[in-house]
Amino acid sequence: MRFLFAWVLAGMFPLLAAAQATPDAAALEWMARIYSAGQKLSYSGVMVYQAGERSETSRIVHVFDAGHELEKLESLDGSPREVIRKNDVVKCYLPRQKTLIVDQAGNGRGFPSRLVAAHGTLSEHYRVSLGEMDRVAGRSARQVRLSPKDDLRFGLELWADGETGLLLKARMLDASGGIIEQFSFTEVSIGAEIDRAAFHSQFDGADGWRIIDAKGSDVADEGIGWRLASAVPGFRMTSAVRRQLGDSHGDVVHMVFSDGLASMSVFIEPLRDGREPELGASHSGPVSIYARRIGDFLVTSLGEAPPKAVQVLAEAVEATRP
User: Fold this and answer.
1) CA 313, CA 293: separation in Å to the nearest integer?
2) Which H/E stretch holds residue 316?
3) Residues 204 and 221 in one domain
4) What mean pLDDT is predicted for residues 25-44?
5) Cα dihedral: 50, 53, 57, 62 (round 10)
6) Which domain holds residue 285?
7) Which range has the worst mean pLDDT, 1-15, 79-93, 118-132?
8) Beta partners for 44?
9) Terminal Cα-to-Cα distance of the chain (whole angstroms)
């Protein structure tokens, strides 16, 4: 699954200045370093994702050149898959299905740019502190801890490269300190020149592939048709996209909400063919899900967040017009 960083450094300066008189100041400075490194450095390596009994190993290459980001993620075990991102356009190659999905990255970039847009409320909802120096993938790393102040978000432990600030390891924790999921480099090279050929897919030009354009179109607030009747503490909407389900199926609205670290999505789609959807709470691995019906629409919220958070978000959704 996906966390992600999309900070603008200029936006961090007021946050850091306000934090200078607090014990969190040094930790927030490390957070700024993690963001900058994840976006602006060239790096490559092998990383492992773990959630419960599931694990997945991937190879990643990333460059930042002339204001553009290029990133390629290739699975090394299980079902083959390649994900190539240029700025906010993502191409996902699924060779077994002979399918290429084209989408927008939005708030879904992967590790190590795993967290989303931070803003001035970060320390209102998290206690941010520095841990000990450690070692990850053979490199010295500084630990940063983010402990939630309420039950609407999970905790995080981050390990940043001591020299460059690149995020080398990220761990999500539940309220009792148990590990929900973890990303970690097992080997990494930082700052080396990377051949642009590394960002081409071996499947480009293959015959018989189906191409799915899932990008959708951005929607302004007044055109969404939906809103939150009450705010979810600390979360604000960071994007809204409308996607077509097909000529006879209407559109689906996808809204993303973030508190600066965690993100949750809301999908609103018309009910079709008289089907009765499964409502209430469920989960898929580390992702909490909550579904409710509003008239002839199904509202589904989900995210790597506590079940209470996705329920509060779903129950706050209302239509802005009859």
Assistant:
1) 14
2) helix 307-316
3) no
4) 88
5) -20
6) 216-319
7) 1-15
8) 61, 189
9) 36
Q: Is the bond leading into 112 cis (omega within 30 degrees of zero)?
A: yes
Q: Is the pLDDT of residue 164 over 70?
A: yes
Does residue 218 register a pLDDT over 80?
A: no
Counting the structural domains of the chain, the total is 2
| pTM score of the predicted model | 0.83
User: Residue 282: which CATH number?
Assistant: 3.30.200.100
- The fraction of the chain above a pLDDT of 70, given in percent, is 84
Mean pLDDT across the stretch 239-257? Answer: 78
Query: Of the segments 14-23, 33-42, 68-77, 250-259, which one has the largest average pLDDT value?
Result: 68-77
Residues 142 and 278 both lie in one domain: no
C-alpha torsion angle, residues 193, 107, 80, 183 (rounded to 10):
70
Are 193 and 295 within one domain? no
Write out the two tokens for 22. 């607090």
How far is 229 from 318, CA to CA, in rounded Å? Answer: 6
**CB atoms near residue 111 (< 10 Å):** 25
What six digits make up the tokens of 198?
């590394």
Supply the CATH number for residue 106's domain. Answer: 2.50.20.10
Residue 108: burial class (beta carbons within 10 Å; 0-12, 13-18, 19+): buried
Specify whether 229 is located in the same domain as 192: no
pLDDT confidence of residue 9: 26
Q: Are residues 196 and 252 in the same domain?
A: no
Q: Which residues pair with 103 in a beta bridge?
A: 90
Residue 270 included in any domain: yes
Percent of the chain scored above 90 by pLDDT? Answer: 50
Q: Which residues pair with 233 in a beta bridge?
A: none
* Residue 221 pLDDT: 67
Domain membership of residue 228 (yes or no) is yes
Unique residue bearing structure tokens 């300190």? 177
Q: Which two tokens stand for residue 39?
A: 């976006």
Give Cα separations from 182 to 53, 113, 172, 173, 190 (angstroms): 12, 14, 6, 9, 21
Instruction: Evaluate whether residue 2 is within a structural domain.
Output: no
